[in-house]
Amino acid sequence: MIISEAQIHIKNLRLRTYIGFNESEKKNKQDVVINAWINYSASSASNTDDVEYAVNYRTICKEMITFTEDNRFLLLEKLTADLLELCMKQETVTTAKVEVAKPHALRFADSVSLTLSATRDH
């Protein structure tokens, strides 16, 4: 069996941060829900069971938490782009996609979300 690519999915990471440009958004933290999909070549990790070949999703998640909670953002685009950059940091990551949702941002909608993706240039 040949294993080529793995996908890690960090699902529904619920955090609070300052996001938005209205006065109330600047003064009060809001909920955000983050989903990230991280693709990488898994053949070495799968064949050897060696953690050195795997993408450490715990580290990525901790970085996402710290970054999101310790900063302020005017736009979903900025927060999403910065989180995507964190996901792409490790050289073995080939592609990644991050979605950030703001629950209750619109009166009659569950949430508003923005999704960005990136591919590593080789």
Automatic annotation (TrEMBL):
According to the UniProt entry, what is the EC number of this protein?
Answer: 4.1.2.25
Q: Which reaction does it catalyse?
A: 7,8-dihydroneopterin 3'-triphosphate = 7,8-dihydromonapterin 3'-triphosphate; 7,8-dihydroneopterin = 6-hydroxymethyl-7,8-dihydropterin + glycolaldehyde
What keywords are assigned to this protein?
Folate biosynthesis, Isomerase, Lyase
Q: Where is the Dihydroneopterin aldolase/epimerase domain?
A: 8-118
Report the GO molecular function annotations: dihydroneopterin triphosphate 2'-epimerase activity
Under SMART domains, the record lists: FolB (SM00905)
Q: Kindly give the Pfam families that the UniProt entry links to this protein.
A: FolB (PF02152)
Q: Show which residues constitute the signal peptide.
A: none
Q: In which pathway does it act?
A: Cofactor biosynthesis; tetrahydrofolate biosynthesis; 2-amino-4-hydroxy-6-hydroxymethyl-7,8-dihydropteridine diphosphate from 7,8-dihydroneopterin triphosphate: step 3/4
Q: Which residues cross the membrane?
A: none
Question: Which function does this protein serve?
Answer: Catalyzes the conversion of 7,8-dihydroneopterin to 6-hydroxymethyl-7,8-dihydropterin.
Q: Which family does it belong to?
A: Belongs to the DHNA family.
Instruction: Return the PANTHER family for the record.
Output: DIHYDRONEOPTERIN ALDOLASE 1-RELATED, DIHYDRONEOPTERIN TRIPHOSPHATE 2'-EPIMERASE
Protein name (database record): 7,8-dihydroneopterin aldolase
Q: Which organism is it from?
A: Marinomonas sargassi
Name the lineage: Bacteria, Pseudomonadati, Pseudomonadota, Gammaproteobacteria, Oceanospirillales
